[in-house]
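Per your request, structure below.
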């Protein structure tokens, strides 16, 4: 990492965290970096794709995020992979939940000492589509709708688990990453150790 990029990241890290995912372009002298901070929301992948089209020679995307919409994290990761860009976590920053999926999109994935990568099981509780379907089932069938609601949640969870497994393989990461992911309650965070990050091929370069 160049000194210019390191100083730019330090100033951004000291700034107040963004509520939504915010993209900041940093010039490294021989190329550009994008600093992505805040929570993942719908439309972030499209915004990043548009930014990449108008920003030449982006070499790395740097993350600091507590998470957000899980499938948007995967969508951002795929945008990064198609562009052939590296991902990086600076010292003393956190990348958790949906951010961890986006980070996997990097062709080269690096992390400084003191950075943290945290996983937990996904939750559909914030899915507008699922919530709408649940409300409709309860309103239409009352107590009898509970059975249908449980099936709906089970199907939604199984479908996302399959999508996540496919995405993990697509990004060249070990499926063993999903064990701490699925074993950790959504309200908690499991911070992976440096050894785990290497063993699972989450971090693939120094």
């Amino acid at each position: 990492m160049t000194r210019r990029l390191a100083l730019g990241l330090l100033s951004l890290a000291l700034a107040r965290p963004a509520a939504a995912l915010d993209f900041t372009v940093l010039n490294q002298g021989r190329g550009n970096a994008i600093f992505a901070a805040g929570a993942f929301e719908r439309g972030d992948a499209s915004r990043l794709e548009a930014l990449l089209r108008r920003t030449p020679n982006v070499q790395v995307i740097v993350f600091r995020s507590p998470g957000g919409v899980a499938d948007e994290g995967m969508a951002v990761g795929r945008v990064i992979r198609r562009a052939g860009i590296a991902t990086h976590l600076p010292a003393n920053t956190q990348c958790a939940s949906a951010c961890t999926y986006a980070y996997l999109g990097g062709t080269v994935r690096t992390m400084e000492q003191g950075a943290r990568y945290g996983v937990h099981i996904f939750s559909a509780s914030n899915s507008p589509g699922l919530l709408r379907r649940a409300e409709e089932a309860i309103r239409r069938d009352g107590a009898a709708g509970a059975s249908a609601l449980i099936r709906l949640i089970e199907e939604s969870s199984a479908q996302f688990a399959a999508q996540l497994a496919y995405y993990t393989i697509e990004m060249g990461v070990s499926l063993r990453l999903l064990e701490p992911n699925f074993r950790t309650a959504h309200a908690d965070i499991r911070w992976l150790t440096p050894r785990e990050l290497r063993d699972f091929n989450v971090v693939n370069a120094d």
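The first strand starts at residue 22 and ends at 27.

Regards,
D.
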